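Reopening: structure tokens for the nicotinamide-adenine-dinucleotide complex, inputs below.
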Amino acid sequence: MSVALVTGAGSGIGQAIARRLAADGYAVAVGDFDADAARATAEEIGGLAIHADVSDKDAVADMVATCTDKLGAPTHLINNAGHVHQARFTDLTADDFDRMIAVHLRGTFLCAHAVLPAMLANGKGCIINMASQLGQIGGIELVHYSAAKAGIIGLTKALAREVSTQGVRVNAIAPGPINTPLVRALSDDWRAAKSAELPLGRFGEPEDVADTAAFLCSDAAKIYVGQTLSPNSGDVML
Ligand code: NAD
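Re-run output (same inputs, fresh job):
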């Protein structure tokens, strides 16, 4: 059976991906550092809740070990956990920067590092890393977030080059603004300006990103390697 480990699945995009993959027949492990949120999602979809901070190496090792014990080794990893924080560059502290990189970039590295040995041993696996269009175009007052997401795109391409001949596909998703608690935490001004400039004229929904993830997880995406797919309301056109 396919086993999907989805981080940050207690809310928003990760929750929608967990729901979609469970509906598609995957056994789903719901990782989140909000234990109550992880439990609620897991109960709803019949999945396994695992409490873990993806920036913590030991916690990530425990998360993957728990998933492997209870459901089997992850065949699919969706590196989705993340947070946002907005500040002008001159007000940004080194601690803000370090935390952003730790959760998004180090977290993506740690989770991929923890699941890859079993995937390589099986000669098959799929890793999806949640980037952002802001890693492609940059976001005002979001230098640390944009840098972390650009790093995720680079990590995705390099890892894909390294492991694709061994059966593991690594890809990224770079969503545009999606209606989740994360985006609702940004300023009203930011959201109004962003909405106005979107060719589609509206933000996406978490289920739109879940559709993209479900595709990348499936055999229909068998020749997708090191790609960054962009469910982004037309904001970035590559
Ligand atoms: P969200 O706030 O709704 O959900 C994020 C989840 O991640 C929460 O349940 C939170 O508890 C969890 N989380 C945060 N830090 C964690 C950590 N260190 N360890 C484990 N879990 C952690 O946010 P969302 O909008 O669903 O965002 C999901 C991902 O999509 C993030 O990586 C985000 O950067 C990315 N993204 C979001 C948008 C958007 O517009 N919403 C756009 C592009 C990219």
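The first helix runs from residue 12 to 23. The mean pLDDT is 97. Marking as resolved unless the reporter disagrees.
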